[in-house]
Amino acid sequence: MSVQPTVPLPRPADRPDADVVIYDGDCGICTAQVSKLPWWDCRGKLAYLSLHDPEVRERFPDLPHERMMEEMVIVDRHGNRHWGPAAIRYLTGRLRRLWWAAPVLYFPGSMLVWRPLYRWIARNRYRLSASSCDSGACQLHLK
Questions:
Q1: Tens digit of pLDDT for each residue in 50-61?
Q2: β-bridge partners, 23
Q3: What is the C-alpha separation between 76 and 125, in angstroms, rounded?
Q4: What are the angstrom distances between the C-alpha of 59 and each of 8, 14, 53, 63, 80?
Q5: Are 38 and 63 a contacting pair, CB within 8 Å?
Q6: Is residue 13 situated within a structural domain?
Q7: Which of 2, 10, 79, 107 meets the CB 3.0–4.6 Å disulfide criterion with 25?
Q8: Which residue, 87, 108, 109, 91, is CA-closest to 100?
Q9: Domain of 127?
Q10: Residue 117 lies in a domain
Q11: Residue 7 domain-assigned?
Q12: Does the reported pTM lie above 0.85?
């Protein structure tokens, strides 16, 4: 029932040494933003999984489903977990084309702004996605 990006995203099997971006594949906003990452990832450093994919539980049984429903997570190639706004911050250092965003995200004290903003968007993502949600998953999560 996941919202499918127009071009299939590379999976961990396709890029075994890549960082794994775990996102909400039922969320239109989430899927739309994640589907843009391959352009920023010109060196193929990322692989992708929807948190609803059974492979997430197989590969990362320690990741709590409830938390993944609240914020995206990136599991880097060393096994470190980067959650929510820290994941976005991590991408600015990992993806060469995003270098310009790093100063804003790494500015001292800026996480005091980014955390609540990220949480608000994450909490309201199905409401914000509802008009572009063809699969009905958004309505399911709004109940």
A1: 999 999 999 999
A2: 50
A3: 25
A4: 20, 14, 11, 9, 14
A5: no
A6: no
A7: 2
A8: 91
A9: 19-142
A10: yes
A11: no
A12: no
